[in-house]
């Protein structure tokens, strides 16, 4: 048997191209379904873990998925705008910790998220450097954003309310006062400011010398908020009409389930302009569709794999027919039928064993780096 395997090994080494093609084909048809399964499972885990941290989410009526993606992943889906009146409405009920979000603008493709310090507690942020914001114009930057933008504590980030990043005549320059520790979440790629800073970018407020008339040379707007000029920044209009893009509600108190039920029941009226959703349920509905698509893809891959295996079987049969003279030579040399069959089957065993090993290694690599791959595709 050892002699048969040796001859089979030497044959596969001699016909390198044929061997490599067969190993590649068999490895891929084995690896692809497993890789698809691993990636989908990692994606589902990522989506569910993020949604599980957010009990309730409020936004304007419309697509609940768009609301969840814009509020949890800061996707630029142009969500309908709520107002601070809805935040005040929730706060008066004292049923939940209310965390408003304003996520409409970007700086060099990094989303700028206006929120409150309660958001830091909800996501359990830790600072790798610096501190949290204290005044207008200060920001805390996610780990990935800081690395990609090449900024650190003390840097300044010019931003514009037009969703573009400009280096000249920027309406506002954010002062970086903190950098977050990595969380492997969308927060790593975001820039966090307080709500009033987000409203400055929105154009609701501005700062200029006290007493100067609007439009006069003395009323040139400040582009930096400092400790000295912060008192010169002001906002126009009724604060209850200031914009937010979403509201996170975290039920509080000893009866959180009851508080959650009460909150859900208040937004079911047909005349209600606000919707309230459980992000976990929205994500489960989306994942159900993804899993259905995955089943179709696996079915398609299975059919392709079957066709490929049939083709490989045909190649093997034709190869044996083409090797009639070689088999005849082996017989004349005294090899028994069992010996000839052992050599031929040994070649298949070697090819299948190497293919299985390659497919297993690729699957293990995909499993190890699957979470990072999912984050690259999603975030």
Protein architecture, described:
This protein has 11 helices and 14 strands. Strands 1, 3, 4, 5, 6, 7, 8, 9, 13 and 14 form a 10-stranded mixed beta sheet that branches. The two termini are 54 Å apart. With 379 residues, it is of the alpha+beta class. It has helices at 2-14, 16-52, 64-72, 84-93, 117-123, 143-149, 195-202, 256-265, 279-322, 324-332, 337-378; strands spanning 56-60, 82-83, 96-107, 110-115, 127-130, 138-141, 156-159, 172-180, 191-194, 205-207, 233-235, 243-244, 246-251, 274-277. Strand 3 (96-107) and strand 4 form a beta hairpin.
For this entry, give a set of tags.
elongated, alpha+beta, 379 residues, two-stranded antiparallel sheet, 10-stranded mixed β-sheet
Which H/E pattern describes the elements?
HHEHEHEEHEEHEEEHEEEEHEHHH
Q: How would a crystallographer describe the biggest sheet?
A: 10 strands, mixed
Low-confidence stretches: 163-170, 215-219
Quote the average pLDDT: 80
- Radius of gyration computed on alpha carbons: 31 Å
Oligomer: single chain
Gap between N and C termini? 54 Å
- SSE class: alpha+beta
The residue fraction in helices comes out at: 40-55%
Counting structural domains, the number is: 2
Give me the count of strands.
14
Question: Helical region count?
Answer: 11
Bulk shape: elongated
């Amino acid at each position: 048997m050892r002699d048969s395997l040796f001859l089979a090994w030497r044959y596969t080494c001699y016909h390198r191209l044929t061997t490599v093609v067969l190993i590649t084909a068999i490895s891929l048809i084995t690896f692809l379904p497993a890789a698809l399964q691993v990636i989908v499972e990692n994606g589902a885990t990522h989506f569910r873990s993020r949604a599980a941290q957010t009990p309730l989410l409020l936004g304007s009526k419309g697509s609940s998925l768009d609301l969840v993606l814009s509020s949890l992943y800061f996707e630029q889906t142009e969500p309908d705008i709520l107002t601070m009146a809805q935040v005040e409405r929730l706060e008066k009920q004292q049923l939940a910790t209310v965390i408003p979000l304003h996520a409409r603008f970007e700086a060099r493709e990094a989303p700028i998220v206006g929120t409150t310090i309660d958001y830091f507690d909800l996501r359990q942020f830790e600072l790798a450097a610096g501190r949290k914001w204290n005044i207008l114009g200060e920001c805390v930057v996610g780990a990935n954003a800081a690395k990609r933008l090449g900024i650190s504590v003390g840097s300044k980030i010019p931003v514009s309310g037009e969703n573009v990043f400009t280096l000249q005549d920027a309406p506002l320059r954010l002062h970086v006062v903190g950098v977050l520790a990595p969380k492997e979440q969308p927060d790593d790629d975001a820039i966090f400011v307080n709500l009033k800073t987000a409203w400055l970018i929105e154009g609701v407020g501005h700062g200029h010398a006290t007493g100067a008339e609007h439009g006069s040379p003395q009323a040139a707007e400040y582009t930096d908020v400092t400790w000295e000029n912060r008192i010169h920044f002001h906002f126009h209009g009724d604060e209850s009409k200031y914009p937010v893009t979403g509201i996170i509600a975290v039920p509080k108190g000893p009866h959180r389930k009851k508080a959650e039920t009460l909150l859900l029941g208040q937004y079911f009226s047909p005349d209600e302009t606000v919707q309230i959703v459980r992000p976990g349920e929205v994500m489960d509905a989306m994942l159900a569709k993804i899993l259905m698509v995955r089943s179709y893809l696996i079915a398609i891959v299975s059919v392709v794999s079957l066709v490929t295996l049939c083709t490989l079987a045909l190649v093997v049969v034709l190869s044996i027919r083409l090797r009639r003279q070689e088999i005849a030579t082996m017989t004349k040399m005294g090899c028994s039928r069992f010996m000839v069959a052992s050599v031929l089957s040994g070649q298949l065993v070697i090819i299948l064993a190497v293919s299985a090993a390659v497919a297993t290694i690729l699957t293990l690599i995909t499993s190890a780096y699957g979470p990072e791959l999912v984050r690259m595709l999603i975030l």
